[in-house]
Amino acid sequence: MNAPITVTSLSTQIKSLLETTFMDVYVEGEISNLTYHSSGHIYFSIKDDKSTMSCVMFRGNTKYLKFKLEVGLKINIRGSLTVYTPRGSYQLICNRIEPSGQGALALAYEQLKEKLKQKGYFDPSIKKNLPKYPKKIALVTSPTGAAIQDMLKVANHRWNLVEFILVPTLVQGETAKDDIAKSIKYADTLNCDIIIVGRGGGSIEDLWAFNEEIVANAIYEAQTVIISAVGHEVDFLISDFVADVRAATPSNAIEIALPDTNEHRIYIDTLTQDFENRLKNILYSKEQNIIHLKRMYEQNSIETKFNLISSEIKMLKLSFDNRFSNILNSCQNSISLLKNSFEHNSPEKKHKKGFVQISKDNKIIELENINIGDNISLQTPTHIANAKIENIKKQ
């Protein structure tokens, strides 16, 4: 009978067998018992409906992990089996971890987006307004990329009354996130009106630095207005949501940040025309007021009043002359009538041979009105005879 071996010896043999047999495994499972250790290692278990397996991802490999592990998340692991001999237990050493059925970058993007949303990084009420006429703009981008040339070209055509300060920055690669965050913090101290953070287009991996939390924190904490201009119009990065303004492209960021010279020329022409029209209207209105005042003055001047009174005097004089003339004519007519009547009734004209005028008590009467005994006077133009009626005979 063979001599027994020690527990350690058996564990070592098992360890050697497992590690040489399962050097590269690819396994799917659901995360449970998750622990992020202060050492930087990640301890957790994966399970299916029947079994559970212990796993560990050492700190050296966590830098390749693009998303955050969460309990209940289904993942695919590539790694190797090992045995921890002091306890005689085996575990899966994880080299790479990907979310099951979803890309790691897409999951990391959604996780960070939700995290920052909950922290209030996307709140519209904290967004700062762009200045209308910026004088100095910091460009946080690569000095050798096409983006910087495109931005300067648009700026020169659109509004050349602005100073640009280039903050050379790595915008791609493992260390890009740290360099971008550092550049944003530096640009925030330059007393610029606007900071434009961005780069040209590329794959999601090329643009990933702008999806990192350290960059989001730098944008959120900056006191200067920030425009995020990363990639193309279809690309939406975490920096776009955190920044005060999102631009579809770097060139679009310049269009957003700067006023348009041509638009302002048109606007100035419009203001000039409007000013001229208003000035003409004001002058015309003042001219009409002066004309009105002049007319009012002329109507109420001493000369006008004198002329009015003089005219009234002339009218009164004319009226007086007319009335006086009418009165004279009327009197003249009356006199003429009296004269005619006098002449018509004059005794000289009325006297005929054999005719006399009969008067009684100094009143002319007719012969038919004489009574017997009346004392009458018989009168011709040259003689008066007194008589007494003694007899009356009717024919």
Automatic annotation (TrEMBL):
Transmembrane segments: none annotated. It is an enzyme of class 3 (hydrolase). Coiled coil: none annotated. It is found in: Cytoplasm. It catalyses: Exonucleolytic cleavage in either 5'- to 3'- or 3'- to 5'-direction to yield nucleoside 5'-phosphates. One of its GO terms (molecular function) is exodeoxyribonuclease VII activity. One of its GO terms (cellular component) is cytoplasm. One of its GO terms (biological process) is DNA catabolic process. Keywords: Cytoplasm, Exonuclease, Hydrolase, Nuclease. Belongs to the XseA family. HAMAP family: Exonuc_7_L (MF_00378). This is Exodeoxyribonuclease 7 large subunit. It comes from Malaciobacter molluscorum LMG 25693.
